[in-house]
Design a protein that fits this description.
The complex is a heterodimer of chains A (259) and B (440). Chain A contains 11 helices and 8 strands. By secondary structure, chain A is α/β, with parallel strands linked by helices. Chain A has 2 domains: 119 residues, 3-Layer(aba) Sandwich (Rossmann fold), CATH 3.40.50.1860; 123 residues, Rossmann fold. Chain B has 2 domains: 215 residues, Up-down Bundle (Fumarate Reductase Cytochrome B subunit), CATH 1.20.950; 168 residues, Fumarate Reductase Iron-sulfur Protein, Chain B, domain 2 (Orthogonal Bundle), CATH 1.10.1060. The chains are: A alpha/beta (259), B mainly alpha (440).
Chain lengths: 259, 440
């Protein structure tokens, strides 16, 4: 596989169909890197012409903005927008709902206008176009999968169906948690909580959500966000069920099961 | 005698309307203490929200059983108030059931419908009292409501039950008097509820019946005028403000955070100094984020006055559910308490005189603000389009940008982003390491 950067395309006077915005978690976090690789593999296998920004990519500024530091957000955002506009980027796909939300909803006010797609929506369109074909009798056939709605994909942007439609192609039994869709319970990482210790309380948010997910009896918890991934993995560990219940990103589930 | 009653009524009515309008003007003034924000775009979408969220109570139907009960109380209370028009006119003119000759056969049908609604309102309020005081639902026993707010809720429900019972008793006495062919009690036809109850008064004398009917009439209308003046001091103000609050509801995706053009401009000048030449000097140092109610938008303050303290926000809040100090409902109650205190200060001193207090710290603590995951569950749940999150984020902006107050880990995260372009301390060179590994 040859993953090219925007700079390489630009040097050849070309523009790729779509930019894969990897995000900081997808780039640096060891667990999230696997999601990044799984999604890149799917893009490659389905013949999508894509590029990454590589070393030129920077944090979108999301955690700084949500923590209250608008200056750092503006610095990151304006630099990113200059770069994206210089490359003439029109379409962006990302596997992180925080990057998705901020690129889609908050960059336009600063002069960054792009069509931004979350990877679960992108996967659904690849499936609808027949570009992703599933293996007969795949790994998850008949198994129970529960889906965790991330806040920034679900409530934040009203995307509830696309990830579920993608999961349906796995021939698994989809079971919902009691708090799902617009009632979904946060994993505890948003609003820059990922980068600090939780405030004093009676329990941790991810323990609460982990327990709820494990209680469905599912053997797989499907996530769509690298931060939810970290939080839910720890939450499942707390219940002592980490051997029976795996937390996997939707891209990983598809990559494992496609022809 | 009749003229005395008419005079008394006109005085009571005039005083009630005067007091209410004075308080309403004060609340309007208080709301406008907030900073300006233009929310007049897309009137079509805004009216749609008024229809769906306010009139239709769409969000309430996330819990259908409670929604139906609440709808009875709401519809009953609004529709029965049509009857108030007749009562007021009767009071001023000294007439009895002025609309009977005008409406004819329609009159008993209307009153019958009002009576059925009155029964439903009574039933609904009784069930709500049971939910609050006997079933003790988590959101109703929360410490947010300790003291006045818990009594406030019960007073409202009890008052509504009493008003409905007065209305039904008045009609029952009236129906019995009609049966006796009393000249003053004009024949209206049969009322569905009170008509079937009138037999219970059959053993009473005419004098007693008239006394009951008149007492109920007076208590009912005086009760309504008193309730009108209770509203602005109570959480029950939502019955009015839910409508404008739905109109001014946020139309953007919930995930979007408000931009700060002042900071945008400053950073732009830093990154592209060539633009600075044409830049007019700023008139004053801009303030970042919100420390007190004056720094919040007027919509945030309208939100605070619209809050009915139902606690759906806090019941869904992941921080609150796991025992953190944060309660979105308390954020709204604190904001209203603070803006009310500021309003009283202005009433006493003509203009606001520094009282050494601010919304931040004297009402809302840093610990509460720091517990928020910005998950939007509170915004999603609110039946009357309130955003506690918007207030939380503005207070956080003040903490970080005006006071450099942030937990140590956040300060580290800020400097990592500034220096390494990522919230963690990784080398920029490793950002595409995963790709290099795949390319091999």
């Amino acid at each position: 596989m040859q993953i090219k950067t925007m700079a390489t395309y630009a040097a050849n006077g070309e523009t790729p169909e779509i930019l894969f915005w990897v995000g900081c978690a997808g780039s640096f976090d060891q667990r999230a890197q696997k999601i990044t690789k799984a999604f890149a593999t799917i893009l490659d296998k389905t013949g999508v012409q894509f590029a990454i920004l590589g070393k030129e990519e920077s944090c979108t500024g999301d955690p700084a903005r949500r923590a209250g530091n608008e200056f750092i957000f503006q610095m990151m955002a304006q630099n990113n927008i200059q770069l994206l506009n210089m490359y003439g980027v029109k379409k962006i796909v990302t596997a992180c709902p925080h990057c998705f939300n901020i690129l889609k909803n908050e960059y336009p006010a600063l002069g960054g206008n792009y069509e931004v797609i979350h990877h679960t929506t992108f996967l659904q369109s690849l499936i609808d176009e027949g570009k992703i074909k599933m293996k007969e009798g795949g790994t998850f056939k008949g198994k129970k999968i529960t889906y965790h709605d991330s806040c920034y994909l679900g409530r934040g942007n009203g995307i509830y169906e696309a990830p579920r439609k993608v999961l349906e192609t796995l021939d698994a039994e989809l079971v919902e948690m009691k708090r799902c869709r617009s009632n979904g319970l946060c994993c505890g990482a948003g609003g820059a909580q990922m980068f600090k210790e939780e405030e004093k309380g009676t329990t941790r948010i991810n323990f609460e959500r982990g327990r709820e997910a494990v209680d469905t009896g599912a053997s797989v918890i499907a996530a769509n966000c690298p931060f939810c991934m970290t939080m839910l993995t720890d939450g499942v560990k707390e219940t002592g069920k980490e051997d029976e219940v795996k937390v996997l990103d939707i891209a990983e589930l598809i990559a494992m099961n496609m022809e | 005698m009749r003229i005395v009653q008419e005079l008394l009524f006109i005085i009571a009515f005039g005083v009630a309307v005067y007091l209410f309008s004075t308080k309403v003007r004060q609340i309007r003034r208080n709301i406008l203490l907030g900073r300006d924000k233009d929310l007049n775009d897309h009137p079509d979408l805004r009216w749609k929200n008024v229809l769906l969220l306010a009139f239709g109570q769409k969000k309430m139907f996330r819990n259908p059983l409670v929604a139906v009960l609440h709808f009875f109380v709401y519809a009953g209370f609004i529709i029965i108030n049509l009857e108030i028009l007749e009562i007021i006119l009767d009071g001023i003119l000294g007439t009895h059931r002025l609309f009977v000759p005008v409406l004819g056969a329609l009159y008993p049908l209307l009153i019958s419908a009002f009576e059925v609604l009155a029964v439903l309102v009574t039933l609904g309020c009784a069930i709500f009292l049971i939910r609050r005081n006997i079933l003790k639902l988590r959101r109703f026993i929360s410490k947010d409501l300790n003291g006045w707010p818990r009594s406030d809720a019960n007073y409202i429900l009890i008052t509504e039950i009493v008003l409905m019972l007065l209305f039904l008793t008045m009609n029952t006495a009236d129906q019995q008097m009609q049966l006796r062919g009393s000249e003053h009690y004009i024949a209206t036809g049969h009322f569905l509820v009170s008509g079937n109850l009138s037999a219970i008064f059959s053993h009473l004398s005419d004098g007693t019946l008239i006394a009951i009917e008149r007492t109920c009439w007076w208590l009912h209308i005086l009760g309504i005028l008193a309730f009108l003046n209770y509203l602005p001091y109570s959480k029950h103000l939502h019955i009015i403000l839910a409508f404008p609050n739905a109109y001014y509801a946020n139309l953007e995706p919930m995930g979007e955070m408000e931009n700060m053009p002042a900071v945008q401009r400053e950073v732009q000048l830093m990154l592209q100094p060539e633009l600075a030449a044409n830049e007019p000097a700023p008139e004053s140092m801009p303030k970042f984020g919100a420390k007190d109610v004056f720094d919040l938008s007027w919509k945030n303050l309208l939100d605070a006055y619209s809050c009915t303290e139902c606690g759906r926000c806090s019941a869904a809040c992941p921080a609150n559910l796991t025992g953190k100090a944060l309660s979105p409902r308390k954020i709204m109650m604190d904001t209203r308490d603070r803006v009310e205190a500021v309003g009283r200060n202005i009433n006493a001193n003509k203009t606001f005189t520094d009282d050494g207090k601010t919304l931040l710290r004297d009402y809302i603590t840093e610990e509460e603000l720091r517990a928020c995951t910005t998950c939007n569950a509170c915004v999603q749940e609110c039946p009357v389009s309130i955003s506690p999150l918007d207030i939380i984020l503005q207070l956080r902006r003040h903490l970080v940008m005006e006071e450099s107050s942030a937990p140590g880990e956040w300060t580290g995260m800020f400097s990592n982003i500034e220096n390494n372009m990522a919230p963690w301390k990784f080398s920029m060179d490793d950002r595409d390491k995963w790709a290099t590994e795949m390319n091999q």
